[in-house]
Amino acid sequence: MTASMFGIWAIKAIILIIILLTGFAYATYYERKAIARIQVRIGPNRAGPWGLLQPMADGLKLIFKEEFIPAKADKVLFTLAPIITVIPAFLIAAVIPWGGEVPFFGRTAHLYLADINVATLYIVAVGSLAVYGIVLAGWSSNNKYSLLGGLRSAAQMISYELALGLALVGPILIAGSMSLVKIVEAQKSVWFIVYQPLAFVIFLIAAFAEINRSPFDLPEAEQELTGGYHTEYSGMRFALFFMAEYIKVVAMSAIIAALFLGGYYGPGVAAHPWLGPVYMFIKILVLVFFAIWTRATLPRLRYDRLMAFGWKVLFPLALLNVFLTAVAIVVLGG
Amino acid sequence: MSIDLLVLLVLALIAVGAALGMLFSRNTVYSVLFLVLVMLTLAVLYLILGAPFVALAQVTVYAGAIMVLFLFAVMILGPQKLAGAGGPIGWQRPVAFGLTLLFLVEVVYAFAAKVGKLGALSCAEAGFGSPAAIGDLLFNRYLLPFEVTSVLLLVAAVGAVVLTRE
């Protein structure tokens, strides 16, 4: 490892963090605007033109809010929990390829942070760590609603992780590699959604459950749990939970785009490599819109239905998909 | 001192420290978290040894799934601060001391017997620890143990379901 390589990594990591933070801020704006349109409202329109400065205003407001710690809370874990929640959200983005090789001031650069040969497993591993933040937030608040929210999310995330991991196997088998970069390169001519429609649907649903998005947002169901695991949180600590959620929405959209929707490929990318990130951006926008649309359309599932759906429908279907894909690859000779 | 050795020493320090923390913590939730830290440190050790697949499997399975279930169980049962030894398992303490002594003697003996007889360490060949190499080993050389383990796990899973039905 040379110093210049280290420098390039550092620069890429900083750019990635800036992109994700901006993505987080504007994902909230996007969601509020889109939901407002669906509900025939106008949405945020006061701060700046078309309300574009609304995320900054929200951020400033949250910074100046009082940081409250309940008297009987476990102070160490109460402070650590939002941090533990937000770090995996950033880490997951390290393996996402945002584009191919691009010319950059006379040299070629790769538009990804790391191409590791176990990237898909890395996504599952880091994603599975995110649950600690939520569970610990629920427990350390010393509040029964928080605890119930934390327990629910632990059960939910473990259950849907299985389907999520198994849905990954389809694209891995077809591409013959666990590296996300190789999986995207294998989709140069045909997107994997064509070969793997079932895995796409399973992954999409399981991803929503994994990041606690509606209709799987039971851990924070306000009617039953007055907010769930973040009931006792305020100020920037509260904002960190939402930062984690929206960054994961963006990161999961990017992963779905990379796994099933051809990643950065699109017409004309071979000639103009800088079009790659643009296509990636468009695909992410569409997928994030789908998440918002789902939230505006579907009611929240009941808890037992949610678990039954995960274990009795998604999990067997994911297993079936692995089996069918493996048989098809053996019969058709790859 | 090379960077690898330095990283190894720091990791070893964290792992052993976390293990001690797990043993001596009076709060079960903290014990579980210390154990998670041990698991994560072990994963980084695998990574240094050039086995990324094993490292990430360690994180996914142990830190991500098993320890979350531990935490889940601790929270459902009510995380309580342990009140010293004694009670129905009080007799285990002398037994534990005896067994630990036996283990230490064994370790010291094994180490003393091997000193000077270890060959030079060689680097693992290229591709060692990659997903393809591990898959090849599991499904060819160790197929029978692998399948027997999976049947055993299946039986355990079915057993758990049957037991909770009653």
Q: Summary?
A:
With 334 residues, chain A is mostly helical. Chain A is globular and about 60 Å long. Chain A starts with a helix and ends with a helix.
Structural class of chain A: mainly alpha
**Largest sheet entry of chain A:** 2 strands, antiparallel
- Number of DSSP helical runs of chain B: 6
Most residues in contact, chain pair and counts: A-B, 28 and 21 residues
Distance between the termini of chain A: 36 Å
Q: Give me the side-by-side strand order of the main sheet of chain A.
A: 1-2
At CATH level 3, the topology of the largest domain in chain B is: Four Helix Bundle (Hemerythrin (Met), subunit A)
Helices and strands of chain B, in order, run as HHHHHH
Q: Give the % helix of chain A.
A: 55-70%
CATH classification, class level of the largest domain in chain B: Mainly Alpha
Oligomer classification: heterodimer
* Average residue pLDDT of chain A: 82
When the domains of chain A are counted, the total is 1
- SSE-based structural type of chain B: mainly alpha
**Alpha carbon gap, first and last residue of chain B:** 60 Å
Q: Can you write the helix and strand succession of chain A as a string?
A: HHHEEHHHHHHHHH
Commentary on this structure:
- The complex is a heterodimer of chains A (334) and B (166).
- Chain A is mostly helical.
- Helices cover 68% and strands 2% of the residues of chain A.
- Chain A has one domain.
- A two-stranded antiparallel sheet of chain A has the order 1-2.
- In chain A, a hairpin with a 2-residue loop joins β1 (101-104) and β2 (107-110).
- In chain A, α3 runs antiparallel to α4 and α8 (197-210) packs antiparallel against α12 (303-332).
- The longest helix of chain A is centred in the first third of the chain and has 36 residues, at 3-38.
- Chain A is globular.
- The two termini of chain A are 36 Å apart.
- With 166 residues, chain B is mostly helical.
- Chain B has 2 domains: 1-82, Four Helix Bundle (Hemerythrin (Met), subunit A) (Up-down Bundle); 125-166.
- In chain B, 76% of the residues lie in helices and 0% in strands.
- Chain B starts with a helix and ends with a helix.
- The interface between A and B is medium-sized, with 28 and 21 residues.
